[in-house]
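Hi again,

Forgot to attach this to my earlier email, sorry! This is the prediction with magnesium ion bound. I've pasted everything inline since the attachment limit keeps bouncing my files.
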Amino acid sequence: MHTIAQDAPTPIGQSPAFLQAMAAVSRVAPLARPVLLVGERGTGKELIAARIHYLSPRWNQPFLKLNCGGLTESLLEAELFGHEAGAFTGAQKRRLGRFELAHRGTLFLDEIANAPMTVQETILRAVEYGTFERVGGSDTVQVDVRLVVATNVDLPALAAAGRFRADLLDRLAFDVLTLPPLRHRKEDIEVLAEHVALQMTKEMRRDVFPGFTPAALQALRDHAWPGNVRELKNVVERAVYRTEPHRMVDEIILDPFVSPWRPLDRPQVATSAAGAVPSPSTAQPYDFTARIADIERKLLAQALQANGHHQKRTAAFLGMTYHQLRSQLRKHGLIVRAARPDEDFAELH
Ligand SMILES: Nc1ncnc2c1ncn2[C@@H]1O[C@H](COP(=O)(O)OP(=O)(O)OP(=O)(O)O)[C@@H](O)[C@H]1O
Ligand SMILES: [Mg+2]
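Structure tokens for the complex follow:
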């Protein structure tokens, strides 16, 4: 996700909700102000970010992207703001960050909720004043960057819980575009499906796409599309690919893993951390304290995993201080050795 987009496909749709979102895109695109894109996975946030850039006066300047998820705090900082030679082990040369590379253009920050609070502070300064320092440097760099950020979580709720900087949120919220899920714009399903099917037909070097049968269209309309346009795209591509040339697409396979020969030894996936409380008529009494400890331990382990075992980020995620987290991890035996000051990762049994 560190590429410079060449150009972006035109977003497709005709539902009122989609057209309203596109009107908002046209309204905000010409301004150099930040835009916050909110939407479920696969609703087109990245596509819309590119659209905003290409409809702006910056269209012929750089458009850069960075996903704030999955990077440690120091890596994210270096990716955003660059580093000087010798800033850390392995930093032999000066390297420019995304903010500097996107000068006069647009920077798209995906999964902004995953940026640690300290980095959020630096981002705020960069948005507000256009200034920052490279990691390991003291020179102030001045840039002109338009920021577009995306999230699929509720940022005001995170800010209220102290896990996202309210001042950054205020700044980013100049215009908030919430992209509607596909299940709330059923009118778009057929046009999107046709569009994807035509592209797939071309990719497979077939000369015509004969269309969908009424049953196939009904199946597409009836599905709830939790994965939104991305899921629809995958399903339609698979349907076209499985259909003989010159035949209408009739079979819609929503789950390609369905098979009578599917292995049965699937791991049990926990559906809730707490699990169901047994009903008194059917269950043995159980040890409340032990159950709570078990739940705490599971939540800690899940939170660590979700945050790449980065303890500071996990603490922020759980709304605790770093020291509270360390004490919880020790209590539950989730640390196998003492933390060094430079130690970023918790080691699990
Ligand atoms: N309105 C649309 N018209 C055409 N294609 C679309 C539209 N919306 C989304 N897509 C396509 O669906 C796929 C998913 O879109 P995109 O990556 O922009 O979603 P996203 O919201 O960023 O998802 P995630 O939250 O999972 O990162 C892409 O291939 C994109 O081109
Ligand atoms: Mg995305």
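The chain has 13 helices and seven strands. Residues 1-5, 338-349 have pLDDT under 50 and may be disordered.

That should be everything now.

G.
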